[in-house]
Amino acid sequence: MSAVSEPGALRATRFLVGASWRNGPGAFVLSLFETVGRVLEALVPLLVGLLVTGALQHDVALVWWGGAGIVVSQGLQFVLMTVGVHARLDMTDRIGHDFEERVGRLSGSVATTDHLDDPAHQDRMQSFTERSGALGGAFNALVNTFNNAASPITTFVVAWLADPRLLLLLIVAIPSTWAVKFTTRWDEQAEHASAPAGRLSGHLMGAMVEPTPASELRVMGARAKIATRASEAVRAWRRPSVVAARHTSVLTSAISTIYLLSATAILVWMTRDALHGAVTVGALTTAVLVIGDFRDSVESISWTFTMTSRMVRAGRRYLWLSDYVAEVDAIHAGTLSPPQRLTEGIRLRDVTFTYPGAKTPTFLGLSLDLPAGSTVAIVGENGAGKSTLVKLLTGIHDLDEGEITIDGVDLRDLSLPRWRASSSGAFQDHMRFEVSARDAIGLGDLEQEPTDDVVRGALTRASATDVLRALPDGLDTQLGTDWPGGVGLSGGQWQRLAIARGMMRERPLLLVLDEPTSALDPATEHRLFDGYAEAARRTRDNGGITLLVTHRFSTVSAADLVVVLDQGQVAEVGTHADLIARGGHYAQLYELQAAGYR
């Protein structure tokens, strides 16, 4: 997986503001009414000061302007705040849904799955998921930035008009904004530090509530052990955030104490001057009200910086994901269509591949020829690289070095979606799609309408027509007991539906059968391999290659070619008879398995 650097804060901010505007210019403008309301609210101490001064000096004009200003500002503020808040909340929901859709679409549209095997990517996505609300709240944070900027500015003006000495509190308030640098850093460090434990806690919690692992834990008597591990993981997940919050609390408490002492000193100073007639009672009244607003304004600015930094970090992660998808798309920018039929076959030359985060490559300089029209069995011990080979041939992973060619054309020059549309397969680790049986099978070829004849044909080729007897509504039966009227299936039945899904395409250029019979009984497996032989014959008609990955050597003898993988290298290649006669690694593995049936 290539390293994509995280975008800068300015780009993330521009993106979030632009996305907010595109989601509703009208609501964007209306939400700013709240900012105007905040300005009116910050003017109240000045108006109260005018009212008090007018009353003490018997100045009707000051009393009228102060009183009328308070009434008008409070009434207008209510209307503006109501309209602004309603528009802001509406925009927050709208943008939140928009970003959830964007993230889901981006995550699901990556051409390869290298990122899903990359621990670093998973940690980033864990932090992204935990703070995904920051994206949804992007507009909310943006408006609050305007609000929390307008209100303090107005408060500073009012303070200056009341008594310039109040602006000395700005000096005392500087540490609050300075502290944001530290609190933001602690918050970000906590996000990164907690991500691995967050993923682990999610995994362990899922194991306790999902049916299959939960059953195994109960049988093994390990439920309490996993519950303890899950609790430890949750504590490890939250610990960095708790430590960061504790540090933030200590720092802000210290700054608040300094501010309180300074504000008290200034008020004592102004009160003494008021007693000597150097400061009006109205100005002192304004000062008392402004000091509270002043502290609130400084705190709101600090809080806004913190929330904005979270918003920007979420925006940077979103753009990072978007950039990664774009980079993968650029790597797979091939536009050539696969051939209608294969004449040469598939060749791997000097292929090197390493899983993200792994210390050693799975393949190092691997070369292999898969002749057109052949049925090739891939065998080897666990960890030999059999399933990895399948992923490389289907473009699921990118190569580190080397090339894979289809009839002499580099796979990277082909349109990857078209190549996959020319491929098909059934896999040991298949998905249990809890939809109708018709859709669960029909997903194997979306270019065909999943009519009864088409789907039943796939079931026949998969030797799975008897599965229909377990479906009360036939192909329209809802699968999965988690749904009303849903039907539960055995592991073997689920696997046979997955095989039928892989048989929807009748003549693919590459048919992959990756341990597809692991959950089947011997009789069903025997019938299925008769179907595989027929599928291989159909595939051969257009030069297609059938790739059979298996541990069961009893099914290998029918293959045209046997490839033995050992520790990421091709150990042997030949027919079953040739390899047995050679007495090498394949013959030893075959004899070991055959001995188990004697």
Automatic annotation (TrEMBL):
GO molecular function, one term: ABC-type oligopeptide transporter activity
Topology with respect to the bilayer: Multi-pass membrane protein
InterPro entries: AAA+_ATPase, ABC1_TM_dom, ABC1_TM_sf, ABC_transporter-like_ATP-bd, ABC_transporter-like_CS, P-loop_NTPase, Type_1_exporter
Record domain ABC transmembrane type-1: where: 39-310
This protein's GO CC annotations: plasma membrane
Residues annotated as signal peptide: none
All copies of domain ABC transporter, residue ranges: 346-592
Cellular localization per UniProt: Cell membrane
Pfam families the UniProt entry points to: ABC_tran
Keywords attached to this entry: ATP-binding, Membrane, Nucleotide-binding, Transmembrane, Transmembrane helix
Protein name: ABC transporter ATP-binding protein
Record organism: Metallococcus carri
